[in-house]
Design brief:
CATH superfamily of one domain in chain B: OmpA-like domain
Largest sheet of chain A: 6 strands, mixed
CATH class of one domain in chain B: Alpha Beta
CATH superfamily of the largest domain in chain A: TolB, C-terminal domain
Order of helices and strands of chain B: HEHEHEHE
Number of domains of chain A: 2
Low-confidence stretches of chain A: 1-20
Radius of gyration of chain A: 23 Å
CATH architecture of one domain in chain B: 2-Layer Sandwich
Mean pLDDT of chain A: 92
Subcellular location (chain A): Periplasm
Number of strands of chain B: 4
Largest sheet of chain B: 4 strands, mixed
Oligomer: heterodimer
Strand content of chain B: 5-15%
Family (chain A): Belongs to the TolB family.
Structural class of chain A: mainly beta
Strand order of the largest sheet of chain A: 1-7-6-5-3-4
Mean pLDDT of chain B: 73
Shape of chain A: globular
CATH architecture of the largest domain in chain A: 6 Propeller
CATH topology of one domain in chain B: 60s Ribosomal Protein L30, Chain: A
Pfam family, one (chain A): TolB_N
InterPro entries (chain A): 6-blade_b-propeller_TolB-like (IPR011042), Tol-Pal_TolB (IPR014167), TolB_N (IPR007195), WD40 (IPR011659)
Distance between the termini of chain A: 23 Å
Distance between the termini of chain B: 29 Å
GO cellular component, one term (chain A): periplasmic space
Chain lengths: ~425, ~180
């Protein structure tokens, strides 16, 4: 197989992040019993490098729930290229796949070679030389994880994506809010916005360059659109009443939102270019939390028109919205899966508020999470995981569960509450 | 595009008076209800709107309580709500009435009604529920003769809890409308 070379662009970070402790760490809370055993051998030559690339790859694969990595201490051989792999050795350790590699420092960066072996098939599946400019070893590791994940599962990896989230500290009139963007593993967090008024509902543009969010910095809610790289932003809406729940259309030209300027909250669609708004729903109840179907033809939203909050689907071009959820008396904040065939939502059961999913072809609702104070589900762009906010003790933390409910992990924060996660689209 | 200038000034220093021991006395009437889920909800669950209409005592009521009292912003500036309700409970009607008297007596006074919910449920849906509570107070004040131009509503949903905690004691102190002058 061919060896590709990938150049990693070195981004100069002008703004040094002063709140490094906003980084999130990972705790696997549930492993899947169907996870594939894999070995990720430490990369030769990586001693003394600023990051342990093989360890990052191993952590990525484990977090996905698809893999059960072999502990390093069990690796009594540590090959660094495919020619040196003794298949019998790894078969005796019940490993089905093996990643080997080596790293070296170069002028202005690093070069990492990795290879993926199918142990039972006794073959090399893929291999690549990754050129890293600057210090972006974590980015390179996530790229390698993406390649390995796709080669084995046939599903595009989402390790090189980002998450946006909101932090809050303090109580009552003395609160501090922050909007952050971090790698999908919670590391390398960067502050996007800070305020002593609430920040809510960050939403990624489909090209991953902008965030729309709600900020109360003028002591009332307004929707802003901010360029993540430059920090430049505009105030998109500040109508009387609620300006909430922004959601970008898949083509990036429109933003659905909830506005209460005409009475109770209704769904509107804003044209991003000229910021005109068109009203979509029209009734005497709460309509909020819109989400676009991947094909841009349908809008999912929460409405209490039947009494309590339930999810409805509106088809572009008119007609009455169709009620989708019928299990229990609280179903809200729906999000489509990337294939548009399922929805993820918050369902209130006798246990509390939990992340659930429902097939659009049927009404059966399945609870995915084991926590009971869940909010704000956001689906990975490859559909394998759902990140959401929940409570651990008295703190708000981010958590994620696989779309099949088999595995989960938490991203605890060192300080304050973390909430309102938004998983970015694919960025590469 | 419609950028509304922030024209409201918050003159008085904010002093939130926390009323201890939020009573579980049920509301005198039903507001919108969403299916009672826990024991704190009392009253029947008839759905309906127009919570203010039954408070329609004449606009002159209370004006006899004296000019002196009406020249000061009432001290109690927070009222509390039952779970999933926007009904003004009978025990807080006197508080709202005192603000109505003050606002009528001081036509230049401005109040921003901040609606809040407890943390349960989704954030944006709670934003809508907080707005319903503040709207209910605004309607009540309006029926009591307060000019709409003196009032505005901002919902904070669950974003600005008054107290931390995950029990009914904390939740009951967070389900509130605050009068901000």
């Amino acid at each position: 197989m061919q060896s590709l070379s990938k150049v990693w662009l070195f981004c100069v970070l002008l703004l040094v992040n002063t709140v490094a402790s906003a980084d999130l760490t990972i705790e696997i809370t549930r492993g899947s019993d169907q996870a594939l055993p894999i070995g990720v051998v430490p990369f030769a030559g990586s001693d003394g490098m600023p990051e342990d690339v093989a360890q990052i790859v191993q952590d990525d694969l484990e977090r996905s729930g698809y893999f059960d990595p072999l502990e390093r201490s069990a690796m009594f051989e540590q090959p660094n290229q495919s020619e040196d792999v003794q298949f019998d050795t790894w078969r005796s350790l019940d490993v089905r796949y093996l990643v080997v590699g080596r790293a070296e420092q170069t002028n202005g960066g690093f070069e990492i070679q990795f290879e993926l072996m199918d142990i039972s098939g006794q073959r090399r599946m893929i291999g690549e030389t990754v050129t890293v400019r600057g210090n972006d070893l974590r980015g390179a590791a996530h790229y390698i994880s993406d390649q390995i994940f796709e080669a084995i599962t046939d599903i595009r990896g989402a390790f090189s994506t980002k998450i946006a989230y909101v932090t809050a500290q303090g109580i009552g009139d003395n609160m501090q809010f922050g909007l952050y963007v971090a790698d999908a593993d919670g590391r390398r967090s960067e502050q996007v916005l800070t305020s002593d008024e609430p920040i809510m509902s960050p939403a990624w543009s489909p090209d991953g360059t902008k965030l729309a969010y709600v900020s109360f910095e003028t002591e009332r809610p307004a929707i802003y659109i901010q360029d993540v790289a430059t920090g430049q932003r505009i105030k998109a809406t500040s109508f009387d009443g609620i300006n909430g729940a922004p959601a970008w259309s898949p083509d990036g030209r429109r933003i659905a939102m909830s506005l209460s300027k005409d009475g109770q909250p209704e769904i509107y669609i804003m044209d991003v270019a000229n910021r005109s708004v068109e009203r979509i729903t029209n009734n005497n109840s709460i309509d909020t939390e819109p989400a676009w179907s991947p094909d841009g033809r349908r809008l999912l939203f929460t409405s209490d028109r039947s009494g309590g909050p339930q999810l409805y689907q509106y088809s572009m071009g008119g007609g009455e919205a169709e009620r989708l959820t019928f299990t229990g008396n609280y179903n809200a904040r729906g999000r489509y899966s990337p294939d548009g065939e399922q929805i993820f939502l918050i369902h209130r059961s006798s246990n509390g508020y939990q992340v659930a999913k429902q097939d659009l072809s049927g009404n059966r609702l399945v609870v995915l999470s084991e926590s009971t104070r869940d909010e704000s589900p956001s689906v990975a762009p490859n559909g394998t995981m759902v990140i959401f906010a929940t409570q651990q003790g008295n703190s708000g933390v981010l958590s994620a569960v696989s779309a099949d409910g088999r595995s989960s992990f938490r991203l605890p924060s060192a300080q304050g509450d973390v909430r309102d996660p938004a998983w970015s689209p694919f960025l590469n | 595009m419609q950028l509304k200038p922030l024209a409201r000034s918050l003159a008085a220093a904010l002093s939130i008076v926390v009323i201890a021991g939020c009573s579980s006395t049920g509301g005198t009437q039903d507001g919108d209800s969403y299916g009672s889920q826990d024991g704190s909800t009392t009253g029947s669950s008839t759905s309906g709107t127009g919570t203010g209409s039954q408070y329609g005592s004449s606009s002159g009521s209370g004006s006899s309580s004296g000019q002196q009292a009406d020249s000061r912003i009432p001290e109690v500036r927070t009222i509390y709500f039952d779970y999933d309700r926007d009904t003004i409970k009978s025990e807080y009607e006197s508080v709202v009435m005192s603000h109505a008297r003050y606002l009528r007596a001081n036509p230049s006074a401005q109040v921003v009604l901040h609606g809040h919910t407890d943390e349960r449920g989704t954030r944006e849906y709670n934003m809508a529920l907080g707005e319903r509570r503040a709207n209910a107070v605004e309607r009540f004040l309006n029926i009591q003769g307060v000019s709409p131009s003196q009032m505005s509503v901002v919902s904070y949903g669950e974003e600005r809890p008054a107290v931390n905690g995950q029990d009914e004691s904390a939740y009951s102190q967070n389900r509130r409308v605050v009068f901000n002058y």
